[in-house]
Amino acid sequence: MIDSIIPSAITGITALIVPSIIFFLTKKKEREAEKKSKKLVYYEEFMNALSNVVGENSSNESRLRFSISVSSLHLVASIEVIDALHQYLDEVRISNKNKSTENHNNLLSKLIFQIRTDLGDNLKLGDKEFKAILWHQ
Prior knowledge:
mainly alpha, 73% helix, elongated
């Protein structure tokens, strides 16, 4: 009799545990996908706002939009993105008297690289260095 109870008990326990594990892992993946999707919205808004303040003729509305998007990034961005963002902002700050195009482009590249990494893009660059520039006319 014990010989028939043990296999039944194992089957019953397995029938409870396996679906629970599958449910947990599925929910975890769904939460990760939702978080990534939300981050992407914030990062897209930031990049759009950034594109609107490039050059010397940006409007007050564009600068306000950029400011809001920068502040909003602090809600979702990884610490690496936030660190890169702060370095970039220090470079483009109006009070920075030592601005350089090279430093700007390097810090922008670092920021965008960190954003892409935060979104799960495992860039395989090999010996190449990631470079990003803002295009304006």
